[in-house]
Amino acid sequence: MRTQCSILIALLGLNCVTGCGRSDDSIVKEVVLSEGQVVEATNQNGTIRISYVSPTKRKYQWDGKSRVIKMIAREEPFQGKLGLYEPANSWGLNPFDVRLVVQEAVRNFDDEAEVRAALIEGSAIMDWVCTNDGLVVGFGRISSRKQINVDLFQFLVRGQKPTGLPGARPDHIRLGR
User: Fold this and answer.
1) Domain span holding position 111
2) Phi, psi at residue 24, to the nearest 5°?
């Protein structure tokens, strides 16, 4: 019995050495918001407010509703993006609740033509709002699925913030603390 207890204690200690202090937060790469930041954007679908909670959590506020989402950090690029996402695979315990499908990432493009294409690619369900320096928020609704999609991006062109995005509406988006 004493040997079994010693082995158990050793295994618990090994687990703590290899896993204690490490969280999903340590692998977060290429996100937009930093501690204390909030972005608010208004488009044809209403107003969405996104607040930094932790490296992997964001608070979303819309239509008088609010939800904190624990997002998944991408370890490998997906469609050229790292950052965070939450696909809202199911409605969970309440099928009448709104599903939030969200992502946040830095997107780096080779030229302005790629930026224009990116703003068009999701425009069927998203209304994009952006600043001249590449802060981009997409806010869309799919009523039939009781779903809200929110994308938060920082666009870069060859690793630098742009100085004039096509279709920028800086009066519809605000980044603050």
Assistant:
1) 24-176
2) -60, -25
Q: How many structural domains does the chain have?
A: 1
CB atoms inside a 10 Å sphere around CB 97: 12
Q: For residue 59, give every residue at least 6 positions away whose Cβ sits within 8 Å of its Cβ, in sequence order, or none.
A: 49, 50, 51, 53, 66, 67, 68, 69
Q: pLDDT tens for the chain, 177 residues: list them.
A: 544 444 333 333 433 333 333 344 568 999 999 999 999 999 999 999 999 999 999 999 999 999 999 999 999 999 889 999 999 876 556 666 889 999 999 999 999 899 989 888 877 788 999 999 999 999 999 988 889 999 999 999 999 999 888 789 999 999 998
Alpha helices in the chain (DSSP H): 2-19, 112-121
- CA 139/CA 153 separation, integer angstroms: 12
Retrieve residue 23's tokens. 């969280």
HSE (CB half, 13 Å, CA atoms) of 58? Answer: 30
